[in-house]
Specification:
About 5% of the residues lie in helices and about 40% in strands. It is built from one helix and 22 strands. It is globular, with a radius of gyration of 22 Å.
Length: about 350
């Protein structure tokens, strides 16, 4: 049975630089690019970047667990010109030919202030796997000043070099406004074996909602209640008429509520809601129950159209009379609508 949760975001002031679209064609700003691509189990798909980000960190959207059970979205060969993306299953899982629309988010290494939203990204080139799921193997990251609360932390291996098609999941814990711990796990049947180092990329996005031209970017952290049973979470801060598309929601575990290799999965969003649950692979045993977790979410959606200014009383009649008198057609240029500031919710 699905349980509904409402995530209420603190709406922040209007963003000024980032502009996003998930139509398959990337739209970029100075240090942030967002887009979508078709990811397949059969091969790696190359996705071009604009080249404006000298050192990007790339993370994929939530995997669609209905499209490919046990599969996660993986990234490799990240550079300023592009990267590759693929659906990866654990060794021993039933092979398939599933595809899904995968969103991707690229942020330049460093700290970026976009309106009132702080975004930071970084690379850990010597990251080791969490051997036997030992939390002591997590790497510590210190965040720059500028975050008002614990951010939404996303992450992904940037270039699996030791085994190119290795099944790896990234998760964070102990997230605060000043830092967090992050690491990655192999499938359970191999997790007792040391693996690494691999370059691990992370993005910390300040929680809040901002309007960006025709788009909205919103980020939040769920309560500590996401488990292996699916629950529906409503993304607050978005217009109720918003329709989120497949690949528009990014998420990652931001706690360590269970030691088995795990990641957050879900179905494609419906309206402003998304079904989330903690998924586990079954390479060592069939058990997939998991403890409570907090999930970081970052989503991108079209902004509602600006309100059309109303004509003053009597103006419509005067305009009609004027057009009738001249006997010609005319196009009336409406004044630009003032940009709406985001209100707190």
């Amino acid at each position: 049975m699905l349980h509904s949760r409402s995530l209420r975001f603190w709406c922040r002031s209007t963003l000024a630089v980032i502009f996003v679209a998930l139509s398959g064609t990337p739209v970029w700003s100075q240090q942030v690019e967002v887009g979508s691509a078709v990811a397949s189990e059969l091969s790696w798909t190359f996705v071009p970047l604009s080249g404006s980000i000298a050192q990007p960190v790339v993370v994929p959207s939530l995997p669609n667990t209905g499209a490919a059970t046990d599969a996660v979205l993986a990234i490799r060969n990240v550079s300023s010109s592009g990267f590759q993306i693929r659906l990866i299953k654990p060794n021993g899982s039933s092979p398939g030919a599933a595809t899904q629309t995968a969103g991707w988010l690229a942020v330049g290494v460093g700290t970026h202030q976009i309106g009132d939203i702080t975004i930071a990204a970084g690379l850990l080139p010597g990251g080791q796997s969490l051997i036997d799921s030992d939390p002591a193997n997590f790497a510590s990251v210190t965040l720059p000043a500028g975050f008002d609360s614990a951010p939404a932390v996303l992450g992904a291996i940037q270039t699996p070099t030791i085994i190119p098609d290795e099944f790896l999941v990234v998760r964070a814990r102990q997230v605060t406004l000043s830092g967090f711990e992050i690491g990655y796990q192999r499938q359970e049947s191999l997790e007792t074996l040391a693996y690494g180092p691999e370059t691990l990329g992370w993005i910390a996005w300040e929680t809040g909602t901002g309007t960006v031209g025709d788009w909205i970017a919103t980020a939040a952290r769920t309560p500590d209640d996401v488990t292996s049973s699916p629950s529906t979470y409503v993304l607050g801060g978005l217009d109720p008429a918003t329709t989120l598309t497949e690949g528009s929601v990014f998420g990652m575990l931001n706690t360590f509520g269970g030691v088995d290799p795990a990641w957050v999965g879900g179905a494609p969003p419906v309206g402003t809601s998304v079904d989330l649950f903690v998924d586990e692979e079954v390479s060592a045993d069939p058990e997939t129950s998991h403890g409570n977790e907090t999930v970081a979410l970052v989503a991108f959606a079209p902004a509602p159209p600006p309100a059309v200014p109303l004509l003053a009383p009597g103006a419509l009649g005067l305009l009609a009379i004027s057009l009738m008198a001249t006997g010609v057609g005319a196009r009336r240029a409406l004044p630009a609508a003032a940009e709406n500031a985001a209100d707190s919710v």
